[in-house]
Amino acid sequence: MxxxxxxxxxxxxxxxxxxxxxxxxxxxxxxxxxxxxxxxAIVAYPLAGSIVRGSIRRRLCQRFPYGLLYTVRQDELRIxxxxxxxxxxxxxVGRT
Length: 96
Known about the structure:
Elements lengths: L1 E4 L1 H17 L3 H18 L5 E4 L2 E5 L5 E7 L3 E9 L12
Parallel strand pairs: 1-5
Antiparallel strand pairs: 2-3, 3-4, 4-5
């Protein structure tokens, strides 16, 4: 299954990595690794994420307070948001 990121989701991933790296050396890489693991789990079990709205699902990262919001299409997994769980909950509505 092909994985694609919405442009804003990719920016959120990079912003999170920069923030954590600024907080502590190596933590940005750990954040990216956590998101990669979460993405791999979604690819393995795409329908396991809880439904948030319509066909949009969410899977939580293990180490960091983030969740990946995604949709599943025939041959594509589309990451819509790399969402911090303690911020505005529905800012991502309208992304494709």
